[in-house]
Amino acid sequence: MELILKSNNKQSIAKIIALAKKLNVIVEEKNIDAEGLTREALKKRILNFKAASESSFGDPEQWQKSQREDRDLPLA
User: Fold this and answer.
1) Tens of pLDDT along 15-71?
2) What is the pLDDT of residue 42?
3) Which residues touch 29 (CB under 8 Å, ≥6 apart)?
4) Locations of Basic and acidic residues compositional bias (predicted)?
5) For residues 50 and 58, what is the distance between their CA atoms, to the nearest angstrom?
6) 23-53 burial, b if ≥16 CB within 10 A, otherwise e?
7) What pTM was computed for the model?
8) How many CB atoms lie under 10 A from the CB of residue 22?
9) Which uninterrupted H or E stretch holds 16?
């Protein structure tokens, strides 16, 4: 599993890194300038995101249908 943390607060990041090291978690630091990314590039990156596997919550459409089956909805 990979966790990405982005912050401008160096003290908070230092505390998180110290905790991660105590827990024997591998820490890789990459200095990425988030301000340099344009709004369009961020939007494109978010819209092109593909999950590696199916959600652990299952099919959201089936969940919604099962939630609504247990009661009558007031329809006008």
Assistant:
1) 888 998 899 888 887 766 656 667 788 888 888 888 777 777 778 888 887 777 766
2) 80
3) 17
4) 66-76
5) 16
6) eeeeeeeeeeeeeeeeeeeeeeeeeeeeeee
7) 0.36
8) 8
9) helix 10-22
